[in-house]
Specification:
The complex is a heterotrimer of chains A (314), B (338) and C (353). Chain A is mostly helical. Helices cover 73% and strands 0% of the residues of chain A. In chain C, strands 8-9-10-5-11-12-14-13 form an eight-stranded mixed β-sheet, sandwiched between helices. In chain C, strands 4-1-6-7 form a four-stranded antiparallel β-sheet, with helices on one face. Classes of the chains: A mainly alpha (314), B alpha/beta (338), C alpha/beta (353). Chains in contact: A-B, A-C, B-C.
């Protein structure tokens, strides 16, 4: 293997362009479609204040008489409400946009918390070993034995009891981020720990020790950047999981309240109305949730295949 | 007719930056019981040559041209079924890392029996007896015990002996050994090479030994090929090439060995490194590293940078080098004028 | 004038406490536990709960002196403990027993803070060029890091100059500083690793099989580089290798190790001309030489024993063609012969060999 004879190093942009990631992305239609869908949903959700025809949180705009109107392709629809309305007369399109925003916020927020805790603990456990490792991994095991549901119930009940229901509703987003973030950090911790254990034995770490660098610097400056690829892969899956977890919690009534709904609570809210024929109240938010999570999962699959070193050597 | 005849072998890899020619114009023959060495550094193409003989090159590699004739039959055009009859049975192979070659979850006996039963209709009992016999031939202590042991219970040297035993199970005509001792310690290496040599001589089995170690080639093989950047650049009897190498690369390789240098003095090195196969220099692939690129009168030789050298016969050897061709031509002209 | 020849001629034949010694290793022993943590060690044996501990005895009593300016080569096959010795000397592993002294000061029991000034004087080069450079750092960053650590008072320009200087001295174009390790070949990576070690201007370098992973023609280049560095910077080397041809060319003195013990220490010329220890003899005969037509090595019986259950007495007795009853029971000590060679062998001591 020789180097090229040019003396200027390639810029970051050139590196990315030549990289295997981009090459593989260009050839994979599924990945391109999924990324496009995902980006559209994210942009739509976060521009909800601009895109939504009505503001579903503004009680003045809700017309109770316009409740349970079907979407535009069914007889009896009102063209002002493109996707119909829910039981309270809120425009479904608007509320889905805002709901998706809430779901995404919680998804990303929870994963950020998981990653922060998980990566730090995994790094420490893997690099320092010994008692620190044993303690942190037992902590992770204990955490894993509590299901997210149980944690949500306990935390929800405790907060509601001490600080009141209204407080809980007001800070629901934060509470959910906290709950889901705390429930799933062991995933990150274990993945990072495995990578760190592999990297720790490599000679560049020995070289850093022989240089006289301190453990903290070696951990963060040398080992951590080399353990990042698996983190990217599991992050996509974890975001999808977080969104689903939040949807499940909301569906059970332990998550976002009806006044400030996420996709999950919308599904819940409309569930009772399937029998009476207003299927769109539950199924349309459901479809959006499925599309969102599916696109993230498929992207995650593609990323995992691409980043698998053995696969792309062939 | 030689047992194995390889002519104009051309192997390529379809990579995303284009098609890379891993082997070009490789020609050699192997008689029954003959021992041939293929020497070169990493990237020269020697493992590709070995794998392509049994059509084991994995995608994106493929055999683009040339012929490989075993006992007169063309292997390239054989069906997969026909090839399976050849692999392991008539031509078997030994790889570099014994731990990777042996299945860690099967006992030694199970692996050997499986190999035998794949090619012959015999009972397990008969197969075990044959396996035991081969283990004795490779001088493994307490062979009965070994049949029921697992690879991780054995040392590197023992595992390599077992690999040799498996290679011999079906009494093949040719064994291809791809760097069989590189991963072993030097005392174990000596024993394994001596064993391989004895077995090949006793059973009249041909050997194609692929290695970068010139000392091993000199001890074990009768003829050798030197490869550089996908081509054979020198071939002939081992003793002659080692005592009097003609191609500048071969000379450089031998001179770079520490045993050829004076202790305390710098080693003779070949400057630069082997070019990547996707970016070969024009003309002779070795010319950027060659010290003989100029003629005797000091003028550069244009052929070196423009033309890929053809083989010329020099004694019993064949060399692909413009300088050697020129030298032989001069000598011939001088003799004619006398 | 051949610097090696000079050193050989003036080297004192004995006197371990000579203040010429830069590094002294005394009674070094290292065991690695195979038994896992406490809970895994408990076993049920013969009706009682016992604590079962198994160790890999990597180093079993090594005494070595390295004199200033020399290149001591430690040779041996896999499992002999030579790499463990190198890592213990550099402080990557702490010894189970024994002492390591650098320039008279004991260093094996120092804290990392106390060890910092020694890190400037002692550096290491590793075997695997593909793993010894951080894949996520550019070459420039890799080479600047030791300088920033050991010279906090230097300004940016001084550091850049020093990096450029050391890159040139190993034959790497300084313009390539912005590239990452994986863009270089094995030989070039090893040069960069050498540059990293030389950047802090050390006086002692431990090289753990630095050329084993390289192609033959590249090995010559890198070895020449190491020899130049020794001459230009007056370095002392502890050179670990299994390649005896390299030793013959590069080393001042050689120590042969087998299963964690030193069998023989001699000057290079003496060892190759007249090896005394049976293992050294077998090792030397096993090197494939270009002149040979057939393998001509001394055959050793048996297999290499495992370092978990060390043989009693002399570790080599199971495979030695000259072993007797005393060899099975008594561990031989290193005894000095009349030409300065030190050999640990009963047969040599008794005059049987």
């Amino acid at each position: 293997m020789t180097t090229s004879t040019t003396s200027t190093a390639p810029s970051r942009w050139e590196r990315m362009r030549d990289s295997f990631l981009w090459y593989s992305f260009k050839r994979d239609r599924t990945a391109q479609l999924c990324l496009a869908v995902f980006i559209c949903l994210v942009i739509a959700a976060f521009s909800a204040p601009l895109l939504a025809p009505t503001d579903p949180y503004d009680l003045a705009q809700i017309d109770i008489l316009a409740s349970e109107l079907p979407p535009f392709w069914i007889d009896g629809a009102d063209e002002m409400y493109t996707l119909g309305t829910d039981a309270q007369g809120r425009d479904l399109l608007s509320i889905i946009l805002y709901g998706t925003r809430v779901s995404l916020l919680i998804g990303f927020g929870a994963v950020a918390l998981q990653a922060l805790l998980g990566v730090t603990f995994g790094l420490m456990a893997g690099y320092l070993g010994g008692r620190v490792d044993a303690f942190l991994m037992r902590l992770a095991d204990i955490q894993l034995s509590f299901s997210t549901l149980m944690v949500a119930i306990v935390v929800g009940a405790v907060v509601k009891a001490t600080l009141g229901s209204a407080f809980y509703s007001q800070y629901a987003v934060l509470m959910l981020i906290l709950i889901i973030g705390l429930a799933e950090w062991p995933q990150y911790a274990r993945t990072v720990r495995a990578s760190v254990l592999a990297e720790k034995n490599k000679e560049y770490v020995d070289a850093a020790r022989v240089m006289g660098l301190r453990s903290k610097r070696i951990m963060f400056r040398h080992v951590l950047p080399n353990t990042l690829s698996p983190i990217f892969v599991i992050s996509t899956v974890q975001i999808a999981n977080a969104i689903i977890s939040e949807a499940a919690l909301s569906f059970l009534g332990l998550g976002m309240p009806e006044t400030h709904p996420s996709l999950g609570s919308l599904i819940k809210a409309g569930f009772d109305y399937i029998q009476s024929g207003s299927w769109w109240i539950t199924l349309i938010p459901g479809a959006v949730l499925v599309v969102l999570v599916l696109s993230i999962n498929l992207l995650g699959d593609w990323l995992r295949d691409v980043m698998n070193p053995r696969l792309y050597k062939g | 007719m030689a047992l194995l005849e390889v002519s104009q072998l051309d192997v390529r890899f379809a990579l995303r930056q284009g098609e890379v020619r891993a082997l070009r114009d490789v020609n050699f023959t192997l008689e029954r019981g003959e021992r041939l060495g293929i020497v070169g550094e990493s990237g020269a193409g020697k493992s590709v040559a070995a794998f392509s003989l049994l059509n084991l090159i994995a995608k994106p590699g493929f055999i683009a041209g040339g012929s490989i004739k075993f006992e007169g039959k063309e292997l390239n055009s054989m069906s997969e079924r026909g090839l399976r009859k050849v692999r392991g049975n008539r031509i078997s192979m030994i790889f570099q890392d014994p731990m990777m070659t042996l299945n860690p979850v099967l006992s030694i006996g199970e692996q050997m029996v499986e190999c035998l039963k794949a090619h012959r209709r015999i009972s397990t009992k008969e197969a075990r007896a044959i396996a035991l016999d081969k283990l004795r031939q490779v001088q493994i202590p307490s062979p009965e015990k070994r049949l029921d042991q697992y690879p991780h219970e054995l040392s590197g040297g023992m595992r390599q002996r077992i690999i040799i035993a498996i290679a011999l199970l079906l009494d093949p005509d040719i064994i291809i050994a791809d760097e069989p001792t590189t991963a072993l310690d030097v005392t174990i290496q000596a024993e394994i090479m001596a064993l391989l040599l004895e077995l090949c001589e006793q059973h009249n089995v041909g050997l194609i030994l692929i290695t970068h170690d010139l000392g091993v080639v000199s001890q074990v093989t009768q003829r050798m090929l030197v490869m550089y950047a996908g081509r054979v650049i020198e071939q002939g009897p081992t003793r002659e090439i080692i005592n009097d190498p003609q191609h500048p690369y071969t000379q450089g390789l031998i001179n770079a060995l520490p045993q050829m240098a004076t202790p305390g003095e710098k080693l003779n090195q070949i400057r630069g490194s082997m070019p990547s196969l996707s970016n070969l220099p024009s003309g002779c692939a070795f010319h950027p590293r060659c010290d003989f690129i100029n003629r005797a009168d000091g003028q550069p030789r244009p052929a070196c940078t423009q033309q890929v050298p053809d083989f010329v016969d020099s004694g019993n050897c064949r060399v692909a080098c413009h300088m050697v061709a020129e030298m032989l031509e001069d000598r011939r002209l001088k003799e004619e004028s006398l | 004038m051949n610097a090696q020849a000079e050193t050989i001629a003036t080297m004192p034949t004995q006197n371990e406490e000579s203040n010429e010694s830069l590094l002294q290793i005394r009674g070094l022993k290292k065991r690695f536990s195979l038994s896992g943590d406490f809970l895994e060690q408990l076993r049920f044996k013969g009706g009682k709960l016992v604590r079962h501990q198994e160790y890999v005895h990597a180093i079993n009593g090594v005494n070595l002196d390295i004199k200033r300016g020399e290149a001591l080569c430690v040779v041996g096959e896999s499992g002999c403990g030579k790499s463990t010795v190198a890592r213990t000397v550099m402080g990557l592993i702490s010894p189970s027993e024994g002492e390591i002294r650098y320039d008279g000061q004991r260093i094996d029991d120092l804290s990392s803070k106390q060890l910092l000034p020694y890190r400037k004087r002692m550096q290491m080069i590793f075997q695997n060029p593909y793993a010894s450079l951080n894949p996520r750092m550019t070459i420039q960053q890799t080479l600047e890091e030791p300088l920033r650590l050991h010279h906090p008072d230097w300004n940016r320009q001084q550091i850049l100059d020093k990096v450029e200087d050391v890159m040139r001295s190993v034959g790497i174009d300084p313009d390539w500083g912005k590239r990452f390790g994986h863009e270089f070949s094995g030989g070039q990576r090893q040069r960069i690793a050498i540059a990293r070690a030389l950047a802090v201007d050390p006086e002692f370098i431990v090289a753990d099989e630095p050329i084993s992973a390289l192609d033959v023609s590249i090995q010559a280049q890198v070895l020449n580089l190491l020899m130049d560095a020794q001459r230009d910077r007056h370095l002392t080397y502890l050179f670990i290798t299994h390649d005896l041809a390299v030793v013959e060319h590069f080393g001042t003195r050689v120590a042969v190790m087998y299963l964690g013990t030193v069998c023989e220490i001699a000057t290079t010329a003496t060892l190759f001309a007249k090896p005394r220890h049976p293992y050294t003899q077998a090792l030397l005969s096993a090197i494939p030489r270009l002149e040979d037509d057939r393998p001509q090595h001394i055959r050793l019986s048996g297999e290499v024993p495992t370092p978990v259950n060390l043989p009693s007495g002399c570790v080599f007795h199971g495979r030695c063609p000259h072993a007797n009853a005393r060899c099975k029971q008594e561990i031989p000590a290193l005894k000095t012969q009349d030409d300065g060679t030190r050999v640990a062998c009963h047969a040599v001591e008794e005059g049987r060999l």
